[in-house]
Design brief:
mainly alpha; 3 helices
């Protein structure tokens, strides 16, 4: 496995965990377990940061003149990075919405 593939898998692994945690946070919020949901969002953010760092390393290499080959696996990693970020943002909104719903239903 070459260096580019290793970085791609590092990104995919980290953002996959972030996405899973965000989905779990949504499920916790639906059950009004807001503290658990918020902990999972914070953990998801940490995994996303790790994914962004790995991705930024590739961008830095290219900016320094080290031309990277086109790779479907990198495209997939970037796609997963963007979708995980979106799901995390939606999870945060859904947590807040469920908090509002709970306060209204009292």
């Amino acid at each position: 496995m070459n260096e580019l593939e290793l970085v791609a898998f590092e990104i995919i692994s980290n953002v996959g965990m972030a996405k899973s945690l965000a989905i779990e946070a949504i499920r916790d919020a639906r059950a009004f377990k807001f503290e658990d949901a918020e902990k999972k969002i914070e953990e998801a953010k940490e995994f996303l940061v790790n994914g962004h760092h790995a991705h930024a390393g590739l961008i830095t290499k290219e900016a320094e003149g080290d031309k990277l080959e086109f790779s479907l696996i990198i495209m997939h990693a970037e796609d997963q990075l963007m979708s995980a970020e979106t799901i995390k943002d939606l999870a945060i909104e859904l947590i807040e919405m469920n908090k509002t719903l709970k306060s209204i239903s009292k």
